Amino acid sequence: MESLYYFYNLQPVNNSCLGDPVGPLSKSEAPGYPLEDRVYATVLLATPANVSICSGGGGWASFALPAGLHSINATALPGLQRFRVQRNESIVALETGRCAPIPPTLVPRLLTLFLAAF
Q1: What does the alpha-carbon distance between residue 98 and residue 5 come to, in Å, rounded to a whole number?
Q2: What is the pLDDT of residues 32-76, one digit of tens each?
Q3: H or E element at residue 69
Q4: Which are the contacts of 110, defined by CB distance < 8 A and separation ≥ 6?
Q5: Which domains occur in the chain, in start order?
Q6: What pLDDT score was predicted for residue 68?
Q7: Looking at 7-11, 32-36, 101-105, which range is the least confident one?
């Protein structure tokens, strides 16, 4: 079985949530682990494939990957987060983030993690 794990922040780094008791996000909240507006995916492939991430209204960021375990990432934009795995121009897996689209502002800080098996 092949799998795709993906995760992303539900709030852009430079935006703060009104009423957040913790306060605004800080790029130094976790030294050594900088906060970035990125969408991350870890994929386990049985055979080579093209794996793509589409964040918000941006285009697809595509990665030609050999068989094995790989971690990739792309710039996170407000909107839907989509993931695609292709082989020989056929779509093997197409996944849309399972939570609300990233809004441009005012969301409590959360990091989501999901699994798509194909």
Answers
A1: 12
A2: 656 778 899 999 999 999 999 999 888 999 999 999 999 999 998
A3: strand 68-75
A4: 9, 10, 11
A5: 3-16+36-117 (2.60.40)
A6: 97
A7: 101-105
Distances in whole angstroms, Cα of residue 41 to Cα of each of 3, 19, 38: 10, 31, 10
CA distance 84 to 54: 8
How far the first Cα of the chain sits from its last, in Å, is 7
CA 50 – CA 76 distance, rounded (Å): 19
Q: CA triplet 46, 47, 51: central angle to 5 degrees?
A: 95
Residue 116 has pLDDT above 80, yes or no: no
Q: Tell me phi and psi for residue 24, to 5 degrees.
A: -65, 155
Measure the CA–CA gap between 5 and 15, rounded to whole angstroms. 26
Q: Please state, as a whole number, how many other Cβ atoms lie within 10 Å of the Cβ of residue 81.
A: 26
What percent of the chain stands above pLDDT 70? 64
Query: Residue 8 is encoded by which pair of tokens?
Result: 């992303």
